[in-house]
TrEMBL record:
CDD domains: TenA_E_At3g16990-like (cd19357)
Family matches, as Pfam families: TENA_THI-4
SUPFAM superfamilies: Heme oxygenase-like
Species the sequence originates in: Aureobasidium pullulans
Thiaminase-2/PQQC domain boundaries: 21-233
GO BP, sorted A to Z: thiamine metabolic process
Cross-referenced InterPro entries: Haem_Oase-like_multi-hlx (IPR016084), Polyketide-peptide_reg (IPR053261), Thiaminase-2/PQQC (IPR004305)
Gene3D superfamilies in alphabetical order: Heme oxygenase-like
Name listed for the protein in its UniProt record: Heme oxygenase-like protein
Length: 236
């Protein structure tokens, strides 16, 4: 019997917590265009602050990689890991601009004044811990995959309600920009790539080892942070 892949193990490790993180009532309201404007604004401003902890986290991870200088580097794991981190930084830089454009255009947003909620600080703390010098690339890659996997599945859940969106609301920024951003083929391929790299990095890590346990801990942290990051709304 082939050893269990780390990604498969993590997904099976806390299925209820994963469901809670990716099928939150806020996402149902977003998917059906019933989300209150102030709730969307709250999420946008906090996700923008989240990005400012994601960027240094990815910078820390990139600094840990050993990038080969040979022309055949594209095939080696070290280069593919570094390339993944570079892509993550490129993506999040674009998303930062997207958030700020949406805030200015749709919410008459003026920069400044926002402070991180305790839920956003939980993500900031998680990134700081997973990207610390004492942590391995494996642990950091687990954090990256966990956050992006949760976002992919969460927004796919929201997209699943598209048939319930009234015609007059299909032009809302949720349906033209935000939901497509995290449900498009390119983003799903990015998440799959991270998962494949994570499994490759974990290939020689025995199940039940200390590193394996650290990855489980990070997974649990992300699931808690993700469930609580969605603003609280009334169930419908």
């Amino acid at each position: 019997m082939a050893p269990k892949k780390l990604t498969e193990h993590l997904l099976a490790h806390s299925p209820d917590a994963f469901t809670s993180a990716t099928r939150h009532p806020w996402l149902h309201l977003a998917g059906t265009s019933q989300l209150p404007t102030d709730s969307l604004l709250s999420w946008l401003t906090q996700d923008r602050l989240y990005i400012f902890s994601y960027i240094p986290f990815m910078g820390n991870m990139l600094s840990k990689t050993s990038i080969p200088t040979t022309s055949s580097r594209i095939k080696c794991l070290e280069w593919r890991v570094a390339d993944c981190f570079i892509n993550a930084l490129t993506n999040v830089r674009r998303e930062l601009g997207m958030f700020e454009d949406i805030l200015r255009e749709h919410f008459d947003w003026k920069e400044g004044g926002e402070t991180a909620t305790k839920e956003t600080r939980a993500y900031q703390d998680m990134f700081a811990g997973a990207g610390a010098p004492s942590q391995s690339i494996l642990v950091g890659m687990t954090a990256l995959w966990a956050t992006e996997k949760c976002y992919l599945e969460a927004w796919k859940y929201a997209l699943g309600f598209k048939e319930e969106v009234p015609e007059e609301k299909k032009s809302h920024v949720l349906h033209t920009t935000l939901i497509p951003n995290w449900t498009c083929d390119e983003f799903e391929e990015f998440v799959i790539c991270i998962g494949d790299l994570l499994d490759e990095l974990a290939d020689d890590i025995p199940e039940g080892s200390r590193e394996w346990f650290k990855c489980e801990e990070v997974w649990q942290q992300v699931l808690w942070a993700e469930e609580n990051f969605w603003p609280k709304v009334s169930n419908t």
